[in-house]
Amino acid sequence: MNLVFKALSDPTRRRILQLLRERPMTAGEIAAHFNFAKPTLSAHFAVLREADLVHSEKAGTSVTYSLKLSVLEDALLSFAETVGIGARPGGKLKLATRRSK
Amino acid sequence: MIDRKTGLACSALIAPMLVLAVWRILTLDDWTTLALPNGSPLPALILLLFPACSALVVGALHWDSRGARADSARIRPWCNWAKSLSIGYCGGLLLLQGVLIIRSLDLDVALDFSAIGRALGIVLAILALLSINQMPKLPWFEPRFAPGGDLGPIYGPRYLRTQSRITVAVMLAVIAYSLAVPPTIAWRSVPYILLATACLVLWSIAWRVHLGRKWKLERSACR
What is the CATH number of the domain that holds A22? Predict the structure, then answer.
């Protein structure tokens, strides 16, 4: 549960989950919605995968992500989105991207 | 979604339920009424509701797996999920029915069977709630004989998510109601709960058909 809270505390990861609510998307399609570098998004995907909130399927060179939320996790996502937990997008990950740049 | 072994285990739980219900109805003075000490009388046919509900759930789970290959990696998580749900549900209902029958026999035992029955009912509801909560985490599996036909990779998971969300909301309402009302009145709510379940099933079928049509139209538009 700790991993789920950690994953849902970041607005970028919540935005990724919101996008996946519409339909399964490839990593490239998701990246098109953000101005982040690819390693930053990969780190976000890794956190979501670790919390078991997304399912990834590799087809050729692209990875397709689909939502894997239980009803409770879905409710937590809506709650975190309404309250606006973690207002600064990125947090530590943003710092890591700046360093890598 | 249930394999042969699980089906047999569930049948082994449903058979005593049916035998017990028939035996109790036949031994009643008035076979239409089940008199409970310190409680309002119930229609005796309520005893047959337990095996009927179990058979319905197990049958629905079995029906869903028809036409799917048991060794398929996609169906395996569903099999494990359905196994725990069906055995837990049948076992829980058998215990609940047993408590109701023992209570109706008016044995001289210093146990509050009314409270035991209520606690069992709530535990059973919580178990079902946890199972339904995990449902959207399972990979989307298209049953071969489902109303509405193919829902596709977009509408399928969406249907599953919404359906589980509504079922969880209904179950939470039922649990809250069971905790709030006195045990003597709680039994009277059974017909209303059954009615709500039937409405939920009808809505689910209608929505599935609607999404199936939508997916079919989108697919034909793409071609």
Answer: 1.10.10.10
